[in-house]
Each structure stands twice: as C-alpha cells, then as structure tokens.
Amino acid sequence: MGNINDRLDFSMTTIDSEARDMLVDTLAEYPARLHELIASAEDTDLTRAGPEGSWGVVEVLCHVRDWEKIFVARVKRIMAEDDPTFESVDDSLWPIDREYHKQKPREVLEDFAEHRSKLVDVLMELNMSDWSRHGHAPRQGRVSIGWYAEHIADHDTEHLRQIRQALRVEDVPDDDSWHKADNS
Question: Nearest 5 degrees, angle CA 134-CA 86-CA 90?
C-alpha cells in the first residue's frame, strides 16, 4: 500500500507555450501588484493583525518571501538533478521563530521581489520540455516544474486575497487570469 504521497503523481501537468508565457507573466507581475496594494497603506495598517486575529500584511509578506526562497531552490534543484526528493518544511512556527511581527513590511516585499525575479529568470530560461521535469514533494508526491509554477500562482492568489482582507480593501476582483489560457 505505502504512503499516499508515493501514489500521487502531479508531474503530468501539461502546459502549452501560450499558457506558459501567461503564467510566467503573472508570476513576474505579482510583486508590482503587491507594491500597488500596499503603496498607500500606513505602516500601522501593514503591521496590525488581520480580521479576527488572522495574519496581517507583514505576516503574509514574510510567509510568501520565505516560501519563495524554497520554491526557487526546488525549481533549480529539479533542473540540476534527476527526480530530487525534497524535505518536508514545517512553516507553522515561522511567524514566531522568525519574528514576522517585528519585520518591516516594505523591506520584506523588496526581498520577496528579488527572489521572485530569480524564479522568473529561471522559468524564462527553460525550454518546453524542462517544464515536465519533476521531483518529489513531501505532501504532493511527484511534481513537475509546471506544477510548481501553477502552485506558486495559486499561492500568490490566496495570499493576495488575504492581504486585501487585512487591509480591508473592497471590490477588488481576484485575478487568476493565467488559468484562462488552460483549456484542459
């Protein structure tokens, strides 16, 4: 029987060049979208807790920055190795251990933007066949670079929504437009 993760296979995510380009553009634009969203916010707005004690903007920005470092490393490793296996990451204590609440949100966003730029650069250098190279993620099992790119875009959308809620921004539509190019 074995572990369910050994039986899952997310490596077959297929993507055509148009969808790939749209996805990479979406990933590249995300830091600017975050900058725009927080540009007019007061520092106190960026450091207060979210609704009902949920993460505030600073915690969300620290979270996406810290995961971006992992995403970049994993994509690079998939390109450098055949079928690497990744260690499990427990991020549950990061907000406490890394003192997210004490960090400066705008500086965190700049750091995130640098790491996102590295990811986009790596993705732009890949040929279409590279997008199907894969590794083994602890929870998902076998995953491709294409799957990781889609996962990161979904992660972005989730946390953009969370930042909007923390800032109490209304009537801003969610943007998952990169999905619209996927006909499957």
Answer: 135
Fold of 4-169: Four Helix Bundle (Hemerythrin (Met), subunit A) (1.20.120)
Position 11 scores a pLDDT of: 45
- pTM, whole model, 2 decimals? 0.84
CB 147 within 8 A of CB 19: no
pLDDT digits (tens, 9 = 90+) for 22-72: 999 999 999 999 999 999 999 999 999 999 989 999 999 999 999 999 999
If one counts every other C-beta atom within 10 angstroms of the C-beta of residue 182, the result is 15
Q: Is the dihedral of CA 50, 52, 55, 58 positive or negative?
A: positive
Q: What is the C-alpha separation between 134 and 148, in angstroms, rounded?
A: 9
Q: Identify the CA nearest to 142 among candidates 150, 132, 130.
A: 132
Which residues are CB-contacts of 116 (< 8 A; sequence separation ≥ 6)?
A: 27, 28, 30, 31, 68
Q: Are 45 and 36 in contact (CB under 8 A)?
A: no
Measured on CA atoms in the order 174, 178, 181, 184, is the torsion positive or negative?
negative
Dihedral (CA of 82, 135, 30, 69) sign? negative
